Amino acid sequence: MPVTLSGQQVLKEMERIYNFRDLGGYHTQNGSFVRKGLIYRSGSLDRASDSDLQVLSDLGIRTICDLRTHQEKERWPDRFPRNSHVKALHFPIKVSKHNESGFISQLFSLLFGEARKLNYAQATEDAYREYVTDFRSEFSQIIKLAAEPSNLPMLIHCAAGKDRTGFACSLLQLLLGLPQETILADYLLTNRYLEQFKVEMLDKLKVFFILGVSKQKFMPLLDARSEYLLAAFDQIHREHGTIEAYFRDALGIRAEERTQLQETLLEKVNRS
């Protein structure tokens, strides 16, 4: 069955790539709209089916930006379309509270260690603030890649396509001039496209529930919540005053690069 994506683009539903959708189709504040078929976002490609790979091939993906950590990438390597000339680039985003310890260690910490006290909603907000403060180079490079037509179509992904990918895509949308309410609405669509992912993750975590850890403790890690992205925007304003100053001074996006990005990704609405 086809699935309607965020930008009103209909594609064959992916079998094993979660949260896959097109950033195109949204209207900007100045009357343009984002071109479809140029920037895609998703979760990890490690479990992609042959059918999923065929969809990626048919879409002509040229560049893949992987935002997972080194350990995530090595443990769950991406699958790519056969005979593909795709350019796969790695921009590892690992925040301070990212837990890559083994399952037994995580279980012990949740039952007896510091993880018992951890507020995952607050930890996720803190992670979004770290995206702003600690990963300027990574997000700057992704934006500059998206501005160059020879790199497109481009796919941006992390593990679930929710947090790191969500922030990266919000930066592109800000530069393109989308209203904040549109950016937030698109970000929250992740909750719809990750329903099956949540079911599978909660099944994997059931041993924690049996041992007395509440399921609700984990939900902040599985949800996309507006307060997460708003925390990142708040951090931008705290440090730089304006979004424009953040792009200019922190990410080094020059005015001509922003113009190039807009010329590449935007199309004027034909009102005739």
Shape: globular
Read across the widest sheet, the strand sequence of neighbours is: 3-5-8-6-7
Proportion of β residues? 5-15%
- Poorly predicted sequence stretches spanning 5 or more consecutive residues: 1-10
Overall helicity = 40-55%
Radius of gyration: 19 Å
Under the CATH scheme, the architecture is Alpha-Beta Complex
Report the biggest beta sheet as strand number plus sense, adding barrel if it closes.
5 strands, mixed
Tell me the span between the first and last alpha carbons.
Answer: 34 Å
Provide the structure class.
alpha/beta
The number of E-state strands comes to: 9
Mean pLDDT: 90
Number of helices: 14
Can you identify the CATH class?
Alpha Beta
How many domains make up the 3D coordinates?
1
Query: What string gives the helices and strands in order?
Result: EEEEEHEHEHHHEHHHHHHHHHE
* CATH-level-4 superfamily name: Protein tyrosine phosphatase superfamily
Classify the fold: give the CATH topology.
Answer: Protein-Tyrosine Phosphatase, Chain A
